[in-house]
TrEMBL record:
<keyword id="KW-0479">Metal-binding</keyword>
<keyword id="KW-0747">Spliceosome</keyword>
<dbReference type="InterPro" id="IPR038765">
    <property type="entry name" value="Papain-like_cys_pep_sf"/>
</dbReference>
<feature type="domain" description="USP">
    <location>
        <begin position="214"/>
        <end position="461"/>
    </location>
</feature>
<keyword id="KW-0863">Zinc-finger</keyword>
<feature type="compositionally biased region" description="Acidic residues">
    <location>
        <begin position="63"/>
        <end position="73"/>
    </location>
</feature>
<dbReference type="InterPro" id="IPR013083">
    <property type="entry name" value="Znf_RING/FYVE/PHD"/>
</dbReference>
<keyword id="KW-0862">Zinc</keyword>
<keyword id="KW-0508">mRNA splicing</keyword>
<feature type="domain" description="UBP-type">
    <location>
        <begin position="92"/>
        <end position="189"/>
    </location>
</feature>
<feature type="compositionally biased region" description="Basic and acidic residues">
    <location>
        <begin position="44"/>
        <end position="62"/>
    </location>
</feature>
<dbReference type="InterPro" id="IPR050185">
    <property type="entry name" value="Ub_carboxyl-term_hydrolase"/>
</dbReference>
<dbReference type="InterPro" id="IPR001394">
    <property type="entry name" value="Peptidase_C19_UCH"/>
</dbReference>
<feature type="region of interest" description="Disordered">
    <location>
        <begin position="1"/>
        <end position="82"/>
    </location>
</feature>
<dbReference type="InterPro" id="IPR033809">
    <property type="entry name" value="USP39"/>
</dbReference>
<dbReference type="InterPro" id="IPR001607">
    <property type="entry name" value="Znf_UBP"/>
</dbReference>
<keyword id="KW-0507">mRNA processing</keyword>
Length: 461
């Protein structure tokens, strides 16, 4: 009995000594009662302390929300430790895959959390279609999974699918169609065969649509944007350029990347619906134009197209002298002859000065009597055509006549012989196209403003 008591005492003393060691250790649970004690974590902290000033990083790794994506750690602290110390389980089978509702999925809007309005590390719930931030235990997506019972989420940046609150990654081929809708992809072979494909696609609601001919949602008087986008989508070299993101991956402009995303969505053959919402592109337009073009305010399509082409060209070129796909498709060259009255010569002539009427050539300009002629070349992206004035009187049937003018008659403005008179400054202009672009853009200004109302010219060209 004594021997057993001595053995028991020795065991109790050994336990007490262990407890003293644990309490005396700098990483004991007494200092951090919310963090469970673990020998592996204690060893990790010691390694971090010896590595030089990394103690705070080690503690942050234990207390922050866990995630294996760089977007969950936006400041770049502790992401390496997360990846090296914790592995996310990847499973092919998930009991919640049948809850995915493709009817409610819409990736055309801004990728912001519906609760925090943050654009960092945003996940989309594949059951209800709402966006939430993060997938850690304190994140909005984790809370939504517990409250609503929705368990399947996709990261909008990495396209990885996770099951919450379990936290494992789902690797199932049945989710590939969602990834293609989130980020449409085209290979160069597919782009080359795009015009040869005449097959119609079918949306989830049963409607048929032809890729590239889908409609764009009108978001509060944004029809001037829609008509511009639809016309640019018919330009084959421009479309092929923006269908492959590697062509403009060097560009940092959000407008360029949003225009490329919109192009890929319009020409994508696996959309869930037969129309596309240009919401993200409109947000980029508002920011790049400093709210010159914005949602809810009507604007002229010709002004928007001119601004869009010039802005895309400026963002795509790598240097001031380099060209871009915009100039390769739309830039032409005009020869302009400008005749103006030389006031100095006319005043001298009126004052009794002598002038022999000979031609005087100075820097590409000529002077004949009191008329100065200047010839120069200028590039253009679009040509403005002048419509004839509409008739003032009605016809026999008491209806306004809508005249029709052949397009060739309107284009005579650029034959180099037809004279166009300008009021301010007073001059006689002659234009001649000396180099045609691959795609010619012409516009006819139909609306004019006077002191009372806005008048439309109904002439058909």
């Amino acid at each position: 009995m004594r021997r057993s008591r001595k053995d028991g005492d020795s065991v109790d003393e050994e336990r007490d000594s262990r407890r003293r060691r644990i309490v005396d250790s700098p990483s004991s649970p007494a200092e951090e009662p919310l963090v469970p004690y673990n020998d592996d974590e204690d060893d990790e902290r010691r390694v971090l302390d010896h590595s030089g000033g990394a103690e705070e990083v080690g503690r942050r790794v234990e207390t922050e929300e866990e995630d294996d994506d760089d977007a969950d750690d936006p400041y770049g602290r502790g992401s390496i430790l997360d990846k090296s110390n914790r592995q996310v389980e990847v499973r092919r089978d998930c009991p919640y895959l049948d809850t995915v509702n493709r009817q409610v999925l819409d990736f055309d809007f801004e990728r912001f959390c519906s609760v925090s309005l943050s654009n960092l590390n945003v996940y989309a719930c594949l059951v209800c279609g709402k966006y939430y931030q993060g997938r850690g235990k304190k994140s909005h997506a984790y809370t939504h999974s517990l409250e609503a019972g929705h368990h399947v989420y996709i990261n909008l940046r990495t396209e990885k699918v996770y099951c919450l609150p379990d936290g494992y990654e789902i690797n199932d081929p049945s989710l590939d169609d969602i990834r293609y809708v989130l980020n449409p992809r085209f290979s160069r072979e597919q782009v080359e065969q795009l015009d040869k494909n005449k097959q119609w696609s079918r949306a989830l609601d049963g409607s048929d649509y032809l890729p590239g001919m889908v409609g764009l949602n009108n978001i509060q008087k944004t029809d001037f944007v829609n008509v511009t986008i639809q016309s640019l989508m018919r330009v084959t070299p421009l479309r092929n350029f923006f269908l492959i993101p590697e062509n403009y991956q060097h560009c940092r402009s959000q407008l360029v990347h949003r225009f490329g995303e919109l192009t890929r969505k319009i020409w994508h053959a696996r959309n869930f619906k037969g129309q596309v919402s240009p919401h993200e592109f409109l947000q980029a337009v508002m920011k790049a134009s400093k709210k010159r073009f914005r949602i809810g305010v009507q604007s002229e399509p010709v002004e928007f197209m001119s601004w869009l082409l010039n802005t895309l060209h400026a963002d795509l070129r790598t240097s001031k002298k380099s060209s871009s796909i915009i100039h390769k498709c739309f830039q032409g060259e005009l020869e302009v002859v400008k005749e103006t009255q030389n006031k100095a010569i006319s005043e001298k002539k009126e004052g009794g000065g002598e002038h022999n009427g000979a031609l005087k050539i100075m820097d590409g300009a000529t002077e004949n009597n009191n008329i100065g002629t200047e010839t120069y070349r200028m590039p253009f992206l679009m040509l403005g055509l002048d419509l004839p004035e509409p008739p003032l009187f009605k016809d026999v049937m008491e209806k306004n006549i809508i005249p029709q003018v052949p397009l060739f008659n309107i284009l005579k403005k650029f034959d180099g012989e037809t004279v166009t008179t300008t009021v301010r400054p007073p001059a006689r202009m002659r234009y001649r196209v000396i180099r045609l672009p691959q795609y010619l853009i012409v516009h006819m200004r139909r609306f004019t403003k006077n002191n009372f109302f806005r008048e439309k010219n109904p002439t058909l060209g």
